[in-house]
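Fig. S4 source data, part A: sequence.
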Amino acid sequence: MWFQMKEAPLTWLEHAPGKFVNEAVLDASPQEVFAIWADIHQWPLWFPEIQSGEWLSQGARGVGSRRLVHLEDLSVKETILAWDPGRRFSFCITAATRPLSHRIVEDYRLEAAEGGRSRFTWTVGFDLRWYIAPLSPIVKRKFGRMFRGATSGLVEYIRTQREVSAS
């Protein structure tokens, strides 16, 4: 069963009631990192909770494209809000199989760093439903751990890819 969520623009992140922010330096150029994000089949290789994903939109990928992502505990439908290769990849979740939140927006940003590396900032804004709010500490701990693990997973995935291509 799908639960509809409220679509939100990127500007909503500035005022989101809840937020997770993770940062890392990645051993790949911004363009290389963006290519990983653009390939839905690579997500499960670095984001442990993602089992699979598929594009729902046909044709070129970009703002307005839609995808379906299956995680361990739920599935979500997403609409791309920003598609700026080498700089920014963002989406809002429009429906989920668990009614945890009214809105969720994820914003992945890249900046070039010294030595062909990338500085990565990942912001997730959310607005929990009223009946989930009393469980907020548990929800924040679970999802905070998931996002930190995915950030570490991306660092490790890129490092491993570098090692494989160097040998």
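Fig. S4 source data, part B ends here. The longest helix spans residues 136-166.
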